[in-house]
């Protein structure tokens, strides 16, 4: 049996489908909020006007919405500028050697390695230990004597305690500063 549609008559299924469809865009933007708010004020019952508390609450909601939009825009601009600055800073390091703390360096058998000891105070004696980064074995130790505050550049010739070339591998440096009977570890920066 065929049914023909009659204008103005809808089935229950049509009404259910309409009920589940979102009306408008879903979220209200600031212009829609202002239109709704002014329409509400224009059409209020003059014998029972909107209470002051409700009016102030709606104005507070609007000002919160505006502040949120402004903060979102500002935060987006800040993030974009930080990303640009980070990329510019990183690009300035391309092709350059940098020194970083605690980085193990690869030595290809008898090759000299360089670094910097960052001395923050004067020491009676400064010792530089060369340690195999893989095994933790002490390979060599250099007595650097008394040192004053500042950066002390050093070069390890790649030799062990016996003066022979240390095997190829990864090595790290450890500086120990002595002041009287007290010893402290001093930061070492190596090329990376």
Describe it for me?
The chain contains three helices and nine strands; from the N terminus they run αααβββββββββ. The protein has 192 residues and is an alpha+beta fold. It has two domains: 12-91, no CATH class; 99-191, Immunoglobulin-like, CATH 2.60.40.4070. Strands 2, 4, 5, 7 and 8 form a five-stranded antiparallel sheet that branches. The protein has a four-stranded antiparallel sheet with strand order 1-9-3-6, with no helix packed on it. A hairpin with a 2-residue loop joins β7 and β8. It starts with 11 loop residues before the first helix and ends with a strand. The model has no long low-confidence stretch (mean pLDDT 82).
- The unreliable regions are none
Order of helices and strands: HHHEEEEEEEEE
Oligomer: single chain
Gross CATH architecture of the largest domain:
Sandwich
Q: How much is the radius of gyration in Å?
A: 37 Å
Which structural traits does this protein have?
192 residues; alpha+beta; Immunoglobulin-like; 2 domains; 5-stranded antiparallel beta sheet; 4-stranded antiparallel beta sheet; 9 strands; 32% helix; elongated
Topology:
Layout: H1 12-20, H2 30-42, H3 52-91, E1 99-101, E2 105-107, E3 113-119, E4 123-132, E5 138-147, E6 150-156, E7 169-179, E8 182-186, E9 188-191
Antiparallel strand pairs: 1-9, 2-7, 3-6, 3-9, 4-5, 4-7, 7-8
